[in-house]
Design goal:
Cytochrome Bc1 Complex, Chain A, domain 1, six-stranded mixed beta sheet, 408 residues, five-stranded mixed beta sheet, single chain, 15 helices, alpha+beta
């Protein structure tokens, strides 16, 4: 059963109820991320996510963590290019307590002393990720592909932008982007809807509203190759980005099937062309659908001496698929693998929370697991080969990180 309610200030509640579930999952989805930042406050969305756990006017940071633990909650938060999400998963009898805690966290104290301490934590996190080549190469690849487009911004920000960030700048950003009409409260599992609506009205009904615009133009893709030599890493990490489909574009389903068949793992074309013969240690492609835009993501991990060969094989494998198309058997296998992932993810409230939230945030849709499964299984061979025939990979940006001087 599906539910929907909107408070007078614009905060929307979305629910997908299951009598058979043994737990309830709640999450506040905030439509804000790195793409909504200016260069002066780059990284503020992720920094703010940390600060939301630093206490409120009613709770200390210790109170927040203790209450989650007392409920036996599975809880966390994440920040992406365009969303920040705070969630928890508990037994149904803790529903009210979890909602009270999460709602209070959505109005944090943002104390100066906490801000100063957490700034150092963020700077350490940025330094830590500098030692993770896969993170670095995709950060650089997004910057190269998207250019000045907001989707090219780093989620973590830079050491300089974080060092320069002031608490008042964060508070101004919070007041605008965490306005009630820019948040969605999502519930899945065995919850009490009437209780949740009444509690949300009481806890969230006085929250402010604000205009929270987002730049949604599509990026202009231009083929390029960028080398970032780094002798600290003994492997070549190569990332590829090419034009894809937005989260609002129905063709995203065909793109997901195409990527599953060509390069999602064991049994894919890239596995047999790159990994199985030992040309590369990893070779894959995926599709990411964002708000108003989308992209294909490719990745290669290889010995530096085989970097060019690996990239050539990946390009040739994808080009052949685009030129000749995939077979019916390949598409059906890919759909079955994706269907298994969809069904397994839908078996728990926590597994459904993100899907339900994203359906609403991106498309104002409320779809059941069966609806989502049907959209996937209805993808046809013709639809898959039609999107491949356009060969968007001809406009791909390629970024390589490692002990390399040249790559074509």
């Amino acid at each position: 059963m599906q539910h929907q309610h909107q408070l007078s200030n614009g905060l929307t509640l979305i629910g997908e109820h299951s009598d058979a579930a043994r737990s309830v999952a709640l999450g506040f989805f905030v439509r804000t991320g790195a793409r909504d930042e200016t260069s002066e406050i780059s990284g503020v969305s992720h920094f703010l996510e940390h600060m939301m756990f630093k206490g409120t006017n009613k709770r200390t940071p210790e109170d927040v963590n203790r209450e989650f633990d007392e409920m036996g909650a599975r809880y966390n938060a994440y920040t992406s290019e365009e969303n920040t999400v705070y969630y928890g998963n508990v037994l149904p009898n803790f529903q009210n307590r979890l909602l009270d805690l999460l709602a209070d966290m959505m109005r944090p104290a943002l104390r100066d002393e906490d801000f100063t301490v957490e700034k150092n934590v963020i700077l350490e996190e940025i330094a830590m990720y500098q030692d993770r080549p896969q993170f670095r190469v995709f950060d650089a690849a997004r910057e190269a592909y998207f250019g000045a487009h907001p989707l090219g911004k780093s989620i973590l920000g830079s050491p300089q932008s974080i060092a320069d960030l002031q608490r008042d700048q964060m508070h101004k950003y919070f007041s605008s982007r965490y306005a009630a009409n820019n948040l969605t409260l999502v519930m899945t599992g065995n919850y009490d809807w009437d209780s949740a609506v009444a509690q949300a009205e009481e806890l969230c009904g006085t929250w402010n509203t604000s205009d929270s615009p987002r730049y949604l133009d599509e990026p202009e893709a231009v083929a390029k190759v960028v080398i970032q030599r780094n002798d600290k890493f003994n492997r070549a990490h190569i990332a590829l980005l090419a034009p894809g489909f937005a989260a609002q574009d129905a063709r995203r389903h065909a793109a997901a099937v195409a990527c599953e068949a060509i390069g999602a793992g064991d049994g894919s074309r890239l596995y047999w062309a790159l990994v199985h013969p030992g040309v590369a240690e990893a070779g894959q492609i995926d599709h990411d659908a964002n708000d108003g835009a989308g992209a294909y993501y490719g990745y290669i991990l290889a010995d530096p001496n085989r970097a060019q060969q690996s990239l050539d094989v990946l390009r040739e494998t994808i080009a052949t698929a685009c030129k000749d198309g995939l077979s019916e058997a390949e598409v059906e296998r890919a759909k079955r693998r994706l269907a298994s992932q969809t069904v397994l993810g839908a078996e728990t409230p926590m597994g459904r929370l993100r899907a339900v939230g994203n359906d609403w945030i991106y498309r104002r849709e409320r779809k059941t697991p069966d609806d989502s499964l049907r959209l996937l299984l209805d993808v046809s061979l013709a639809q898959v080969n039609e999107i491949l025939a356009c060969n968007p990979f001809e406009r791909a940006s390629v970024v390589a990180l490692g002990p390399l001087d040249e790559l074509r």
